[in-house]
Amino acid sequence: MSRYRGPRLRIIRRLGDLPGLTRKHSKKTAPAGEHGQQLRKPSEYALRLEEKQKLRYNYGISEKQLLKNIKKAKKVQGSTGVILLQILEMRLDNTLFRLGLAPTIPAARQLVNHKHIVVNDKIVSISSYECKPGDVIKIKNKNSSNNIIKKYMEYPNLISLPNHLTFEKDVLLAKVNGIVERDYVGLQLNELLVVEYYSRK
Question: DSSP secondary-structure letter at 109?
Fold first, then answer.
């Protein structure tokens, strides 16, 4: 099973704030479980694993997908960690989430899977579709599609709109202007540890 469908607050307590996974916040600070209260210094491997798990749970991708994206990022010239984050941020489900059209990435994925989203005048039902500069994203002209989006937009995301996206709320039209910069990634993460995790495997 590639997608996580279990308790989300348990993941938040273990890994910290993951805006893409859920909007919920736990009042408890210690990790879940019997041994969550024991404070021990984590090993280097544990730190790298934790950063990798943050990426997986926040973006809702499987281990296989993450490994594929790491290999893709290594082929591109530049910092592998930053390029990996850019690849994940430019996914269609994440782009919808960052536009405020969905409260979480799983909700955005559902919009895409149910064919509510049109990219460059074509219906796209693959949430891993990589948005490119110049792409125009619209909502399918259907009452059900518009109602769902408007309901989601009543509770806007806390994250401000990144500079690589423009969004016209009145006509529900978005445009991708460029590739996201590292500063606008909404996740607190050390991407170098993720690259280290896979380089040692």
Answer: H
